[in-house]
Amino acid sequence: MSNNEGSFSNNRMWKLKKKICGRGPDRLTVKKDCDGNIVTDPENIKKLYSDVFTKRLKHKDIHEYLEKLWSLRMELFNMRLESSKFNKSEDWSLSQLEDVLKKLKNGKCKDPSDLVNELFKLENLGTDLKQSILMMMNSIKNEMIQPEFMEFCKVYPIYKGKGEMSNLDNYRGIFVLHILRMIKDRLINNDIDKIIEPTMSDSQVGGRKNKGCRNHLFVLYSCMNSVKQKQSKPIDIKVYDVSKCFDKLSLEDVCNNIYDRGVTHDKMAMIYEGN
Is pLDDT above 80 for 244? Predict the structure, then answer.
C-alpha cells in the first residue's frame, strides 16, 4: 500500500480494499427538492444540486431599515475597488512561487481540467514551465483579468453524517478549483496574511496558521476547571452555530473589511475579480 517514494498511498489502499471486499449493491439515489418532492432522475438531481448551491452562496436579503446603509457600503466598495486597481504592488518573484509549489499536497483529486498536483511539484516542474506560470500570474495581477478556465470548479457534496441523506441541507460542498487558480490564490494569501494577521483577534482561530479549535478548548476547559475548583462562581456556557454563516457572506462587504485591515492595493481587487 506504499507508493514509489515508500510513503503510504490512499489510492492503493482503496484499490486493495475493493479487490478484497468487492463492491456492494448499488443504492437508488433519492433526493428531495425544497418542496419535499422526491427526485430520482440523474439529470434532475444534478440540476437540484446546482440550484441548492447557487441559492446557498447567495447572500441574504437586506432588511428594509438597513437598505440605506447597504447602499452606502456598496458605494464605498466601488470607490475602493477602483482605487485599489491603480495601487499596484510589486510583481511576484520566482522564490514566492516556489514557496507555494513546495506546499502542494500529493494524492489530491483532479481539478476541473483533469490535472493533478503532482505535475506542478518542484521536483517534476521544469524551469521553463515555472517561468511561464510566474509570467501568467503577474500578467493576471497587472491586467486584472482572470482567464476563463480558472473560473470553473467542481463541487463535491459530502454528507455531514447527521439528518436525512435525501435532504441536501445536510450536505456540505467541497469546491475543487483549477490548480493554477489555487496557486494564484495562495500567492495572494501569503502576501495579505502578513497585513491581516496582526490585526485579528485571538478569538478567530479558523483558517489561521498554528491555531485551531484547541485554542478555544483550552480557554473553555480553564473556565470549567476554575468553577469545579470553586475558584470562581458557577457559570452557564452557551454554544451558538450560525446557519450557513460563511456561505451567506457578501463578497463586496468582505472586501470592504479586507480594505479596512490594510489591504489597499491591487490584491484586494484580485480577490474580488477572482470570486
Answer: no
